[in-house]
Amino acid sequence: xxxxxxxxxxxxxxxxxxxxxxxxxxxxxxxxxxxxxxxxxxxxxxxxxxxxxxxxxxxxxxxxxxxxxxxxxxxxxxxxxxxxxxxxxxxxxxxxxxxxxxxxxxxxxxxxxxxxxxxxxxxxxxxxxxxxxxxxxxxxxxxxxxxxxxxxxxxxxxxxxxxxxxxxxxxxxxxxxxxxxxxxxxxxxxxxxxxxxxxxxxxxxxxxxxxxxxxxxxxxxxxxxxxxxxxxxxxxxxxxxxxxxxxxxxxxxxxxxxxxxxxxxxxxxxxxxxxxxxxxxxxxxxxxxxxxxxxxxx
Length: 298
Prior knowledge:
Elements: H1 3-35, H2 39-42, H3 45-76, H4 85-115, H5 117-122, H6 126-136, H7 138-147, H8 155-190, H9 198-233, H10 242-269, H11 271-289
Helix pairs in contact: 1-3, 1-10, 1-11, 3-4, 3-10, 4-6, 4-7, 4-8, 4-9, 7-8, 8-9, 9-10, 10-11
């Protein structure tokens, strides 16, 4: 085996193993922090959508990274790729699709909260957000079915189609969020002498929530754009060459890392969630350290 290929395979294995454990840890920490937090935090739709996104990201992490590690180890040992590639790619794209759709619903929730606060406060509920998500989630599954073994269209075409049909509304809602956040920041700067007013405090919290959503979408685009370029330039070709297969491993790893980056963004931008995460981590560590030792039968 070529030394350059060997080094890349070892590095990819290490990255996927690291992000398997970090992704599991941070996504579980978000989920547990939400459910053990105060009633105030659990009542907020925004934090509820963060928890739902972390749930789908958790599923993505525990499936996609290990599958990649298995295939990489098989290549290192110069063994046949016994993992069914089609099943692996379906797993990958289905959970990626669920995660992206959840981020889209989160963006819609933030958009309604910013532009239609009365409707958001009086009419938007968890059930309605989950209903919207349930309507959107089957789309990636349907696309996977019609692209299985190139039944209707190729898998590359499905990837490009799904990305652009999803990115368009994502860009629209987050562009509108960016516009209103910029106007709000200007209002805050003009009223800097009255920063202690309830209106300014509420506006500051809403701006942080909006910036979290914007940053999450930016991370999504950053990690998945390489895959779109790859599919675009290899639209009519099968990934048979060694370089093409290696490129697929790299872009798959980069895309899967987004599920860990989401959690880091949430903890970085949200003081409340970060505080709850610290308390949850301390509680978990205390519980583990205080477990009784198993001395065996006397």
